[in-house]
Amino acid sequence: MTSKKTEKYHLILQGALKVFAENGYHRSQVSKIAKAAGVADGTIYLYFKRKEDILIHLFQEKLGELVNKFHESVAETNDACEALRMICTIHYTELENNPELAYVTQIEMRQSELELRKEIGITLKPYIELIENIVQQGIDNGQFRANLNVKLVRNLIFGSMDEVVTSWLLSGQKYSLRDQVDETLQFFIHGVSK
Amino acid sequence: MTSKKTEKYHLILQGALKVFAENGYHRSQVSKIAKAAGVADGTIYLYFKRKEDILIHLFQEKLGELVNKFHESVAETNDACEALRMICTIHYTELENNPELAYVTQIEMRQSELELRKEIGITLKPYIELIENIVQQGIDNGQFRANLNVKLVRNLIFGSMDEVVTSWLLSGQKYSLRDQVDETLQFFIHGVSK
Amino acid sequence: MTSKKTEKYHLILQGALKVFAENGYHRSQVSKIAKAAGVADGTIYLYFKRKEDILIHLFQEKLGELVNKFHESVAETNDACEALRMICTIHYTELENNPELAYVTQIEMRQSELELRKEIGITLKPYIELIENIVQQGIDNGQFRANLNVKLVRNLIFGSMDEVVTSWLLSGQKYSLRDQVDETLQFFIHGVSK
Amino acid sequence: MTSKKTEKYHLILQGALKVFAENGYHRSQVSKIAKAAGVADGTIYLYFKRKEDILIHLFQEKLGELVNKFHESVAETNDACEALRMICTIHYTELENNPELAYVTQIEMRQSELELRKEIGITLKPYIELIENIVQQGIDNGQFRANLNVKLVRNLIFGSMDEVVTSWLLSGQKYSLRDQVDETLQFFIHGVSK
DNA sequence: GATGAATGAGTGTTCATTCAT
DNA sequence: AATGAATGAACACTCATTCAT
After folding, report:
1. CATH of residue D62
2. Number of residue pairs across A and B with CB atoms under 8 Å?
3. What is the mean pLDDT of residues D123-141?
4. Where in the numbering of this chain does the HTH tetR-type domain appear (chains A, B, C, D) (predicted)?
5. Which residues of A touch B155 (CB under 8 A)?
6. Is the pLDDT of residue D123 over 90?
């Protein structure tokens, strides 16, 4: 249910996503976002403290939806391998289907000050922790090695997927991202060894 | 022996590294860099076309050194696992020992326009390819699975390490990065499975 | 009645005229013009694309008024000699009464790039053509020689008056400009010969 | 006789004439002039106090030659009409044959500060006075009207020719300047009347 | 709440001039 | 005298943010 108050809020976020994806954060003037959202420049400041705030909220909003999808999909299984597969599938599929979102998360999000990076870290945390829980679950049910450093491994897993997406994006999205799921999973499960 | 001509060039790069690490790229005024380098503002433009150019050269210079170290170390062995270990060791150790460089590569480098990102991609390519070669070598000598997608795997490996470094940096460098080498290698070689 | 929108536009032009006359175009910083106009620096760029634009608009605005006066005065007569007299009278009188405008038209206008000079040429054209028409009229009604090269003669006439104004200005405006009308006319009509 | 000391002086002036004509005064960096002259930047300051100085000297040098030609040609005759014809012929011919010089005198010379304009006025004075003398001579020998205001008339004459040259230049030199001599003279001698 | 005109702080870059060699 | 690397003052322009309506 979207109240009348939040209508403009979402219009602005929608406009910002479009403008950021087209021009990059630093080249996206507030007035351009306002125009894309169909509101006046000043109106933006009724919903956001600063320009940076738009980016943060955009990230939180969009990532929140993603994290929800992750949680929903994983809830259905006790198999850690299967859970990892679902995580990876959603990760690749969702970003492949939303190139604008992909661009903003992979490129623009990183273009921010240290302060903002930490803010983003907080938003990202539930996702990272979800991966951590899956790894822990895999250990607990005997699927994974017991001596895994879960905090390190979750970073390795997230970092891998993250880089694959960025690489795909910078390459010009010339191949299918979701087609990489199987081989990515192979690597997570068995590593490179025979 | 540093020729007189390149002396200021390196002074400026050194100053820029310091200033970028302290303030971030966008908050680093050219005049601040000049001051840190002990030269006049205008002098910078005798050696660099524009501010962005400093970042690119800084990256190329520093990353070039790193890539050389990677190549040298790897040249000594035919064992793909051992080569991966060396790569990871150098990657973690060098950045741990050069926090300023780490900050610039992990945070500031990403703060740049798409155009620059591609420039950086080119500089990074030899490193990525080195990893690819190691993986290929591992396949060839039977250490690794034959059906590995080398281009995907190299991205997974690089992305993993990259994320570990970023995470370490954003955490405030509270733990030892090089101590993560063994477990990182475990993950690369065997994945998570028992 | 000046609409609210154009109010600042005219304030800026007025300020620019003053500042240009006092300091010359190149020594007139935008901030100085803004101050003289009683607006913020940035406001200028809501009404003009760039600094040069102010000069062009100033010229068009002021010259447009002059050209109108020329046209009005000439419309009243069929006598080419009388028309020339009116042209000359207005030319001298108006500039004598507006030393700031005189300074800008005679000195600053010429200080601009070739590109701008052509722009100015376009604005000046109606005036030059008016002179041409008068000459043609004089030929047609038998007052002037039939074999006059009207395009050359209009330049000779305009150039004469223009130089007289510049000379008067550079001399420090020590004598009356309008007092030169009679003798200037004599020269136009009869030349130097007995 | 050119001493070794003045060799570079003339090289610089020659280079400046070329560069000014090609780029205009304000877009002509000192370093560009130095390059065109085949000397080092600093060398220029051994011969000229400031950049503006080059323009002044260039003007004085080139105009000095012109004035000499004027004087020589006029010395041969006592006929004021004939003298005016010679003045006009040389004025148009010389500038038509030296488009670079024409460009600098008609366009660039005007692009200078009031201070410089007065400097130029001084250099131009002998030429203006020469015209004045011719007019006076015409009066004295009964060729011209006795009640002519010589100081005004000289300005009218100079201004006419000056405007014709500028107009020809801005038109892109599409027609012959010297072909305008006869009709210009007609205007000076008889004005426009029948 | 909504507007959008107005603000003014902030900075990369140029280039005339200097001066140690 | 000649060099040319180094200097640093100067400034147009942008754009996030405010606030009177």
Report:
1. 1.10.357.10
2. 140
3. 93
4. 6-66
5. 160, 163-164, 167
6. no
Res B12: pLDDT = 97
Per DSSP, chain B holds a count of helices (H) and strands (E) of 9, 0
Supply the pLDDT for residue D2.
47
The answer for residues whose C-beta is within 8 angstroms of residue A48's C-beta and 6 or more apart is A12, A54, A57
The answer to whether strand E lies under 7 Å from the CB of residue A35 is: no
Of all residues in chain D, the one with the smallest CA distance to C186 is: D191
CA distance B11 to B34: 9
- Number of residues written out for chain A: 194
Q: Tell me, yes or no, whether D17 and D76 share the same domain.
A: no
Judged against a pLDDT cut of 50, whether residue C122 lies above it is answered with yes
Q: Is the CB of C30 under 7 A from strand F?
A: yes
Q: Does B15 touch chain A (CB under 8 A)?
A: no
Is residue D29 over pLDDT 60? yes
Six token digits for residue A120: 């983003």
What pLDDT does D109 receive? Answer: 67
Last residue of a domain, one of A48, A63, A86: A48
Q: Is the pLDDT of residue A124 over 80?
A: yes
D-contacting residues in C 31-70 (Cβ below 8 Å):
none
Taking a C-beta distance cutoff of 8 angstroms, is the pair A33, A12 a contact?
Answer: yes
- Which residues of chain B are under the pLDDT cut of 70? 1-5, 109-115, 194
**C-alpha distance from C6 to closest chain D C-alpha (Å):** 31
Instruction: Specify the nucleotide whose C1' lies closest to residue B28 (CA).
Output: E11
| Position D179 pLDDT exceeds 90 | yes
Element counts in chain A: helices (H) and strands (E): 9, 0
| Pair (B20, B69) in one structural domain | no
**b (16+ CB within 10 A) / e for B22-60:** ebbbeebebebbbebbebeeeebeebbeebeebbbbbbb
Q: Phi and psi dihedrals of B193, rounded to 5?
A: -75, 155
pLDDT level of residue C1 (50, 70, 90 thresholds): very low
Q: What is the per-residue pLDDT for C156?
A: 96
**Same domain as A62, residue A152:** yes
Judge if B95 and B149 occupy the same domain.
yes
Helices (H), chain C: 4-23, 30-37, 41-47, 51-75, 80-97, 99-103, 114-140, 150-170, 181-190
Burial status of residue C17 (CB atoms within 10 A of its CB: 0-12, 13-18, 19 or more): buried
Tell me the per-residue pLDDT of C43-87, one tens digit each, with 9 for 90 and over: 999 999 999 999 989 988 988 888 999 999 988 899 999 999 999
Instruction: Give residue D113's pLDDT.
Output: 65
For nucleotide F18, give the residue with the nearest CA to its C1'. Answer: A42
Confidence of residue C9 (pLDDT cuts 50, 70, 90): very high
Residues of chain D with C-beta less than 8 angstroms from the C-beta of C135: 192
The pLDDT of A50-57, averaged and rounded, is 92
CB–CB contact A160 B161 (8 Å): no
* Cβ pair D144:C110 closer than 8 A: no
Q: Could you give the CA distance from residue B188 to residue B170 in angstroms, rounded to a whole number?
A: 23
- Assign A120 a pLDDT band (cuts: 50, 70, 90): confident
Question: Three-state SS string across D65-118, please?
Answer: HHHHHHHHHHHCCCCHHHHHHHHHHHHHHHHHHCHHHHHHHHHHHHHCCHHHHH
The residue among B131, B124, B163, B66 whose CA lies nearest residue A192 is B131
CA nearest neighbour of C157 among C187, C183, C182: C187
* D residues 80..109 contacting C (CB < 8 A): 81, 107
**C111-120 pLDDT tens trace:** 666 667 777 7
Full DSSP string of B145-177 = -TT--HHHHHHHHHHHHHHHHHHHHHTTS-S-S
Which residue range is the domain that position B133 belongs to? 51-190
Query: Count of domains in chain D?
Result: 2
